[in-house]
Amino acid sequence: MSRKYKIRDQEKLYFVIFTVIDWIDVFIRDEYRNILMDSIRCCQQNKGLEVYSYCIMTSHVHLIIATAGIHKLEDIIRDVKSFTSRHIRKALENMNHVHESRREWMLKRMYYAGQRNCNNNDFQFWQQHSHPIALNTNEMIEQRLEYIHLNPVASGFVDLPEAWLYSSARDYAGIAKGYIDLIYI
Average of pLDDT values for 41-65? Predict the structure, then answer.
């Protein structure tokens, strides 16, 4: 991993991206989105994860996060990704999971990626790195916050950032409390 993308200071805010392998649109389904949100909320409650901003897109997630010091941020990131991967894998492998027409194709892609990556046993859900970027200045924080909230607009899904249901833009606009508890910047 590049030196540029390491968590060096546990007291800083970090911008991270979690991307599904092959940019598969997994988070178009509530079931998978809920697994991800449950994982984040669990780490908030039990591991000291602090979430300042988020946007769950169809194939990736943007976050501004930090740690309250209970656990190292890289360990929390590992736990969020691991929990999400295991539980989405279980959901996909469940033979009663009939409403997922892409089930076999997605599993095939994830097994293929896992077998080719020496860091996995046989299955890979997330791309390997989350590319954490330390947010050292208020300007960097504001730029990343705007980037996160405008991502669904830039992708053509909505006209206004606060119209995307799975984003902290709704919280920051004062429209509605989102799905994940926030610490405001």
Answer: 97
Q: Which residues contact 184 (CB under 8 A, 6 or more apart)?
A: 52, 171, 172
The contacts of residue 146 (CB under 8 Å, 6+ apart) are: none
Q: Which of 185, 147, 141 is nearest to 167 (CA)?
A: 147
* Strand, coil or helix: 1: coil
Could you give the CA distance from residue 86 to residue 126 in angstroms, rounded to a whole number? 11
- pLDDT tens for each residue of 73-116: 999 999 999 999 999 999 998 866 557 788 889 999 999 998 88
Contact by Cβ (8 Å): 20, 146: no
Alpha-carbon distance of 72 to 127, in angstroms, equals: 20
- Do the Cβ atoms of 51 and 40 come closer than 8 Å? yes
**Is residue 88 within 8 Å of residue 57, measured between CB atoms?**
no
Q: From CA 53, how far away is CA 6, in angstroms rounded?
A: 20
* DSSP 8-state class, residue 36: H
Q: By C-alpha distance, which of 82, 81, 47, 83 is closest to 67?
A: 47
Strands 13-19 and 60-67 come out as antiparallel
User: Would the pLDDT of 128 be above 90?
Assistant: no
Q: For the beta carbon of residue 109, count every other beta carbon within 10 angstroms.
A: 17
What backbone torsions phi and psi does residue 100 show, to the nearest 5 degrees? -100, 95
Q: pTM of the predicted model, to two decimals?
A: 0.91
